[in-house]
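During the reporting period the student researcher (J.K.) took over the structure-prediction task from the postdoctoral fellow and processed the backlog of single-chain submissions. One of the processed entries is reproduced below for the supervisory committee.
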Amino acid sequence: MHAFTFAAPVTTNDAINLAAEQSAFLAGGTTLVDLMKLDVMTPSQVIDINDLPMRGIRRGRDGIAIGALERMSDVALNRDVSTLYPVISQALFASASGQLRNMASIGGNLLQRTRCDYFRDVQMPCNKRVPGSGCPAQTGFNRAHAILGTSSSCVATHASDLAVALVALDARIRLQGKEGERIVPLADFYRLPGDTPSVENVLRPGELITQVQVPRLVWGRMSAYVKVRDRQSYEFALTSAAVALNVGKDKVLEARVAVGGVGTRPWRLPQVEEALRGEPATEQAFAEAARLAVQDARPLEHNAFKVELVQRTIVRALMSVRGVR
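J.K. obtained the following structure tokens:
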């Protein structure tokens, strides 16, 4: 681990003003500390933000606001969250072990880095870590990598389960930086890799996520998160699906569908949502709509199985909302 200076400001403005180009904000540290130990991230300054006023889970007429420093476990167990948006609680419980959920913050979870082995091995080239060095995952072992939103520069998957659920719910995040505050839809926060995979989101230098805003959705109670992984405990998704269904007279009135484990960012599927609208809420109709999820897929040598698996995951999630496991 490289040497660094440490600061622990008590106001948000102080934290933002302290931040320099090579600074890193520390909350739960479950991603940052790991990457610092591997020398994947080498900040010259670490700014502990745990004393900042960015906590609380508040329910209002417009939805729920969650402070960025809330711990994953507390949000998952919150009665309003688990009742009004089960998909959020389920995604959080599926994200990590209990010990990690007790440490990790909501804002940190949304900013976690990819689990690509090439990114985490400083002896290997990686365009996300060292721009222009190459992407060995293109022709190397790529079983866990993305099939949607990839480019010739990067095929790494986005790691957050929570982000998939929040994108399905049209969540927004409040950002605060030296230029003031702004609110950004989470779906617009993450960038496709293109030719610059090292630029992962629209955060400006020194900017912080301070709050997550989940809009009111009356039928958000009818939602679910399904995660398919190699083992049940503490593993990242091969595929996952976050869904919400509004059903009337056994027909789909509205739907929300997003998937994880297959995209370079949390992947919303408006074409699947449109195909579901007005159709019977049956397994056959769900399967027909799910086929549209992979129309732009670009599988690699070792992850072609994800093309079918993600369709099955979507159907399973939709069926679980209908009460069929």
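The committee noted the following: The longest helix spans residues 305-321.
J.K. will present the remaining backlog at the next meeting.
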